[in-house]
Amino acid sequence: MDLGQNRRGVDMGPSAVRYAGLQARLARLGHEVHDEGNVYVPNPEEEVAEGKARRLEAVTAVCKDIYTIGRKCAECDEFAIFLGGDHSISIGTVAAAAQDGPIGLIWVDAHGDFNTPESSPSGNIHGMPVAVLAGQGPEPLVNVGYPGVKVHPTHMVQIGIRNLDPAERDRLTHSGISVYTMRHLDELGMAAVARQALDRLRHVARIHLSLDLDCLDPSEAPGVGTPIPGGLTYREAHLLMEILGDSGRVTSMDVVEINPILDEGNKTAELAVELVASLLGQRIL
User: Fold this and answer.
1) Number of domains within the chain
2) Could you report the per-residue pLDDT of 23-47, keeping only the tens digit for each?
3) Which among 118, 132, 201, 225 would be 20 to 30 A from 164, CA to CA?
4) Is residue 3 part of a domain?
5) Residue 60's Cα: distance from chain center in Å?
6) 211 part of a folded domain
7) CA distance 171 to 77
8) pLDDT tens sequence across 170-183
9) Residue 187 — φ and ψ, nearest 5°?
10) Which residues are designated catalytic?
């Protein structure tokens, strides 16, 4: 899906990740893998993009379909990997994961995605999913799956943040969300940040991980919708996945914002496959 933003290309992200061999890689780790195919998404050209929440009706409809598929995975106690697409898909994926009781949400991203239509300079919904999941934003999105808040802000941790809109910065500061910016990572190191994140979520048994590939530095992951310099290194990203994987508490995840049009030889999708593998059991020793 690329309804949640203006720049075309991230709708091809799932195909790029499949081409990079995600299913075979996970099978080699001993996992039984089922590819459920794609959710139908209308072309952006077919939808009117105007107002403070652009393509609201279309994004809501797709997120409802994503929620329905996510519930099937949850009810079968399967680990669900959702391939995007822009980050607005998480409105559906997290709603599905959170219905069975409180979860933690680890949001690894260059951006806070905590805008509302009133604070967003662009009106692009891919900059709003964290706010929506906290119960703030357009009512149709907030109520995807079932009414109201999906994850309480104190059960949310953001890692890798380095680009915020002015009003969004103020909102995030007073939100109750634990935010680790790139400065925190520089000062503390990834191992400490990852373990602190898990400790902050110690009261919840299950964690949904939402991984936006623009969390990485563009030198590592050039094929993303909104690249921002100064991101995670290759090893920092793998270390985060390894520590989260060791915890055994991550039960579902998103992999989003891969744009093959901007990529170099499918480098970003291949890196995404490596990171998912690190989360799900790939180890050096």
Assistant:
1) 1
2) 999 999 999 999 999 999 988 777 6
3) 201
4) no
5) 17
6) yes
7) 35
8) 999 999 999 999 99
9) -80, -40
10) 87, 109, 111, 113, 126, 212, 214, 257
